[in-house]
Amino acid sequence: MRLFSRSGLEQNFAAAGLNVEFDRSSFEPYGIIFVHPWSLGCVARRTGTVEIPKNHLSAQDEAVERLQVQLDQAQDLVQQLQKERELIKTSKWLKLGRIMGFGPRL
């Protein structure tokens, strides 16, 4: 069984960079009813922006970043090759070569 105290929770939230507010008021239309003294609603909000230092990324996060860069590069290459293929298909020289029986069939 876990036991929490209000002051302990406030300290833990503050250590995590959160501002916490506790509220004992009930709001029955939404099913929020506090009938016991140990029931407390709370709202925790960030006190500022949180930035994770680069050196705290896990090995998996770094691998995902590398793979994302490789994927972006591969997609750029595919787009470039598709454009070149379309230019080749419309080339007058290739059309002439195909008429004469030479060149690739694209």
Provide a compact summary of the structure.
About 45% of the residues lie in helices and about 10% in strands.
Polypeptide structure, described:
With 106 residues, this protein is mostly helical. It folds into two domains: 41 residues, no CATH class; 42 residues. The protein is 46% helix and 11% strand. It has three helices and two strands; from the N terminus they run αββαα. Strands 1-2 form a two-stranded antiparallel sheet. The radius of gyration is 31 Å and the shape is elongated. The mean pLDDT is 83.
Number of strands: 2
- Structural class assignment: mainly alpha
Which series of helices and strands comes N to C? HEEHH
What gross morphology would you assign? elongated
Mean pLDDT: 83
Overall domain count? 2
Q: End-to-end span in angstroms?
A: 71 Å
- Largest sheet features: 2 strands, antiparallel
Number of helices: 3
Poorly predicted runs: none
Strand order of the largest sheet: 1-2
Task: Determine Rg (CA atoms, Å).
Answer: 31 Å
**What amount of the residues lies in strands?**
5-15%
Properties at a glance:
single chain, 2 domains, two-stranded antiparallel sheet, elongated
Lay out the secondary structure.
Elements (H helix, E strand, L loop, with lengths): L5 H10 L2 E6 L17 E6 L12 H31 L2 H8 L7
Antiparallel strand pairs: 1-2
